[in-house]
Amino acid sequence: MRGIEYVQLVASLPALGPILAAKTAPINRVRLHARLQQMLRPEHLAEIQAAASLLAWERQALLTTDADFVSHARKVIPTLKSEALRRLVYEDVEQRTVVAALRRRHAERDAPAVGEIWGYGRYVDRIRAKWQEPDFGLGQSLKWVLPAKEKLDKADAAGLERILLDAAWRLADRLVGDHDFDFEAVALYVVRWDLLERWTRYDAEAAAARFGALVADALNAAPAGLNADADLVREAA
């Protein structure tokens, strides 16, 4: 039987709809966070906040080194009690590792050295081994990689951001069907709301500035991680 702990909360949240068709978020940040504060158990609210510390792209600038992100990921991911949320965070960080590799290669840097701390998850070794392949050999499983590379090569900041937001949305959306009124339903709503809200306040000029900074700095502003521990791989699978 599916969990029904948060029927009232989930029922009070407006439908999100397709992300790339959205013009405004259907509920503003203040109202959404107020409902979470009022209706979530404290431990559930804390878990959403912990996941957000890894999922929120704009906050990653606060983590200035690879070691910072590695330490944070090691601490956060194993503590997430929700299997669905843990899997989502794990795969999202993997996705951003691929983006970091695309940017690094675009900046004409060599493949990461063996033992170098630079990426997170199952694809780290494959990316290093297939550095010269346009999609790092991941195109079959990650359909967005080649389109993202093309946008990066064309310096199309808006197109790249659109692809990355859509890929992150699909990642979260894939898990929604298994949850109706439980904690996971709330958490997945919050993750998707954050992506949709980012899209609706998208600023092309700001995106172009971010794009230039990311390319120039290669990886400094991109999330980094580590070769995932085997136990974390099993937990996220």
Short descriptors:
mainly alpha, disordered C terminus
What is the gist of this entry?
The chain has about 240 residues and is mainly alpha-helical. The chain contains eleven helices and no strands.
Task: Spell out the blueprint of helices and strands.
Layout: H1 7-12, H2 29-39, H3 42-55, H4 66-76, H5 83-106, H6 124-129, H7 145-153, H8 157-176, H9 183-200, H10 204-217, H11 230-236
Helix pairs in contact: 3-5, 3-9, 5-7, 5-8, 7-8, 8-9
Q: Report helical residue fraction.
A: 55-70%
Overall structural class, as computed from helix and strand content, comes to: mainly alpha
Q: How many domains comprise the coordinates?
A: 1
Mean pLDDT: 83
Stretches where pLDDT is under 50 for at least 5 consecutive residues are: 218-237
Strand residue content: under 5%
Gyration radius from CA atoms, angstroms:
18 Å
Give the terminus-to-terminus CA distance. Answer: 22 Å
Element-level helix/strand string:
HHHHHHHHHHH
